[in-house]
Amino acid sequence: MTARPLITQRVDEFLTALAHERGVSPHTLRAYSRELHALADYVIAALGNSFAIETLEHRQIRAYLSELYGRGLSKASVARALAAIRSWFKWLARRGYVEQNPAVLVATPKLPKHLPRVPTIEEMNRVTDAAADDLATWPERDRVIFELLYGCGIRNAELVGLDLRDIHWANEAILVRGKGRKERYVPLGDAAAEALRKYLSLREAKLAAAGKSSDALLLNARLRRTASGLGRLTTRSVGRIVKKIALAHGLAADVHPHTLRHAFGTHMLEEGADLRAIQELLGHERLSTTQRYTQLTVGQVAEVYDRTHPRAK
């Protein structure tokens, strides 16, 4: 039996270590596995099975990225590959397998600053109100999806990860587990609470009729078991539901669940909310992320300052 190349072994060791880190999602693991095994295959094909990892230089990493461009990959895809390679080499250096990280000498591709067009408040109200119409597979559930994505500004992954116990009715809040499993509370508005109550009664009846139980807040219509548990709705399904309903009611073709999150932050700012409060609600570590997320212009920031700061009058 032929021994596996050392570079492949090191990739697998890193992925195993990553899998045991707190808060690393299966999606992240799959992405890192794909990117790093592709790099390993490239190095083996170009330099042979016995190539020593510690001799890999930034020039060779640049050559690999050029290869990715040649395959037709976008700048965003190449940037993701480079990020995975940097993380791997950082781990290799910590373990003493290499002395330095050659990937830090490779410039990250400059990405176009593009965010999807944010729907207006009127458009979002129209689509959210229509989420429970005849177009929906499970109208009451789909209304909850829109109310929580737009009304609470949570991420798609955060939405499908919600359990029943995360709804804190007494405090009118939802416990959300964000990136890195960091927890935050977001307010549960009246419209979202009303939609939840209508859905939950039907949810219980559906489970009882099937003789099943589930901790998941949002269930798929057939109560199928998914990788996350019995009946739990997936992010992919949420994406299809949002696009189907939104397109039917006049939103742009590039709409997706994150569009509703953009709209949440942008509309709160337009209505006078403090930028740091929006940062807290969105679960951003850096204020700069919130500013970019809400598509702020210098004029908008100045207008908020002029309207709210006591020394601006």
Summarize the structure.
The chain is mostly helical and 313 residues long. The chain has helices at 6-19, 26-47, 58-70, 75-95, 121-130, 139-151, 156-160, 190-210, 235-248, 257-270, 275-282, 287-293, 298-308, and strands at 167-168, 173-177, 183-187, 225-226, 229-230. The strands form two sheets. A three-stranded antiparallel beta sheet has the order 1-2-3, with no helix packed on it.
Topology:
Elements: H1 6-19, H2 26-47, H3 58-70, H4 75-95, H5 121-130, H6 139-151, H7 156-160, E1 167-168, E2 173-177, E3 183-187, H8 190-210, E4 225-226, E5 229-230, H9 235-248, H10 257-270, H11 275-282, H12 287-293, H13 298-308
Antiparallel strand pairs: 1-2, 2-3, 4-5
Helix pairs in contact: 1-2, 2-4, 3-4, 5-6, 6-8, 6-10, 10-11, 11-12
Report on this model:
The chain has 313 residues and is mainly alpha-helical. Helix content is 55%, strand content 5%. The strands form 2 sheets. Strands 1-2-3 form a 3-stranded antiparallel beta sheet, with no helix packed on it. Strands 4-5 form a two-stranded antiparallel sheet. β1 and β2 form a beta hairpin. α5 (121-130) runs antiparallel to α6.
